[in-house]
From TrEMBL:
This is Helix-turn-helix domain-containing protein. NCBIfam families: excise. Residues 12-60 form the Helix-turn-helix domain. It holds the Pfam family HTH_17. InterPro entries: HTH_17, SinI_DNA-bd. It comes from the Bacteria.
Length: 65
């Protein structure tokens, strides 16, 4: 990934989500399992739509208000 902030049409890998949110692999998979971050698979590859990153951050900010 060339930029830290992904473009909306990208599908991110788990390591890219980890870098964007500064979280561990375990925490990213935990967020996926809980449904807080939506994802999909292509074969065995897990991908997260780039739009999920700002949506997750917005939701967390609203929860703190």
């Amino acid at each position: 990934m060339s930029a830290l902030i992904p473009t909306p049409n990208e599908a991110l890998t788990v390591p890219e989500v980890m870098a964007a949110l500064r979280l561990s692999r375990f925490k990213v998979y935990d967020l996926i399992r809980s449904g807080e971050i939506r994802s999909f698979t292509i074969g065995r590859a897990r991908r997260v739509p780039a739009t999920e990153i700002p949506a997750y951050i917005r939701k967390r900010m609203e929860d703190n208000d």
